[in-house]
Specification:
With 384 residues, the protein is of the alpha+beta class. Strands 3, 4, 5, 7, 8, 12, 18, 21, 22, 23 and 25 form an 11-stranded mixed β-sheet that branches. Strands 13, 14, 15, 16, 17 and 26 form a 6-stranded antiparallel β-sheet that branches. It has a 3-stranded antiparallel β-sheet with strand order 6-10-9. The longest helix has 25 residues.
Length: 384
């Protein structure tokens, strides 16, 4: 056989093999939205070793408590007094609009949730661990049912001023324990101030809340309904840098949430000096400024920011209902100036919302405060 004939024979065989390969690729594409299979090595969920931590990441030896009798907080992993750790937290409903700012003692919250309510107004839920000695908390507004499900995760006392009838069934459940300023039995926990007009001038005190909790027969001790361990944490001595995710970890020194919260238009700026995200907002009708605590003057800061995409329904008159229980939604986790894509799961009323990377590992939050931004699944935000 001549060389020319051999060349065309080999060319024909190569063409057939290539065509078959292309057909298989169409049936089984390489790029997929599904998580990697078990045959793909999982990205380590552990933080970087101390030797590999970049010099611009804040590292602190927190292996020993500052004083005797302290334990790790289940909310932040910081060292707290054992009595504080054993006391159930409070989850306080806080409005966030021009007439409602500034807030008092908001910088003392361990975890802060934010989501839209009717009319694109933003409302927050502040979860406080060490609350009994706070003199002025708030201001305080009405509850929505989806916030209650997030409060359940911490076995928290829900502190609020009433709410729409949508919450009635949930509030009536035997396990729901709340302090409602619109009820005569609970008013001792609240007071009004003259620094602004109603309805934005209602506050609570830690002493008053403790008194009402006792009068209602609620236990300050955890009831065993919520998970003993909620978030998984890395220590300050060996922080999670997200560098183990290589190029999948995106730069995130500036996070702009204005596309999700059009009336507050909040954003976060990362400070390498202390490793924290600083929160600012540009309220509708107000100025662009740091989101500061009126009592302490401190700007709100967070070590971790979780963005949680949630399916929602419109209940009419602008009222929203977010689907807190799900196993299919995604989001982002930001810390130390980086961010990774995550998926979240919550299967029970009192079960924790858990966040997983794209390899199925539960993400390790860094020790410190956490901001959880609840966003509608079709809203947009940016970071860089």
């Amino acid at each position: 056989m001549s060389r020319i004939k051999l060349f065309f024979l080999f060319a024909a065989v190569f063409f057939l093999l290539t065509a078959c390969g292309q057909e298989n690729d169409t049936d089984n594409p390489i790029l997929t939205d599904e998580p990697p299979t078990s045959s793909v090595p999982a990205v380590p969920s552990q933080p970087a070793t101390p030797e590999s931590i970049p010099s611009n990441i804040v590292v602190e030896d927190d292996s020993q408590p500052p004083r005797e009798g302290m334990v790790r907080s289940r909310l932040t992993n910081e060292w707290v007094d054992a009595g504080v750790a054993a006391t159930r937290p409070i989850a306080v409903m806080v409005p966030n609009e021009t007439g409602a700012v500034p807030h008092y003692n908001l910088s003392k919250a361990s975890i802060l949730y934010e989501a839209n309510v009717e009319g694109y107004m933003s409302r927050m839920m502040a979860v406080y661990e060490d609350w009994r000695n706070l003199d002025k908390i708030g201001n305080i507004r009405s509850l929505r049912a989806y916030y209650a499900y997030w409060a359940f995760e911490w076995d928290a006392f829900i502190v609020h001023m009433g709410g729409p009838f949508f919450i009635n069934e949930l509030i009536a459940e035997d396990t729901t324990q709340n302090i409602d300023g619109t009820l005569g039995s609970d008013t001792a926990a609240f007071f009004r101030s003259g620094d602004r007009s109603a309805p934005h001038n209602t506050y609570a005190s830690g002493e008053g809340l403790a008194r009402v909790i006792s009068e209602k027969g609620y236990s300050l001790n955890y009831r065993g309904l919520a998970d003993d361990s909620h978030f998984s944490f890395a220590t300050k001595a060996s922080p999670n840098t997200l560098l183990q995710y290589n190029s999948e970890a995106k730069n995130a020194s500036y996070i702009d949430m204005s596309g999700c919260y059009p009336l507050t238009r909040c954003y976060f700026e990362y400070n390498e000096e202390d490793g924290l995200y600083y929160r600012s907002q540009h309220l509708s009708g107000g100025s662009d400024s740091p989101h500061a605590d009126a009592l302490t003057g401190e700007q709100l800061t967070f070590k971790n920011i979780l963005v949680q995409h949630v399916k929602y329904d419109d209940l009419g008159s602008g009222y929203l209902a977010f689907q807190c229980h799900d196993t299919t939604r995604d989001g982002w986790f930001f810390t130390n100036g980086k961010g990774i894509h995550v998926k979240w799961e919550k299967s029970g009323d009192y079960g924790a919302t858990r966040f997983y990377d794209d390899y199925g590992n539960e993400v390790l939050l860094n020790t410190g405060k956490t901001m959880i931004c609840i966003v509608k699944e079709d809203d947009n935000y940016t970071f860089r």
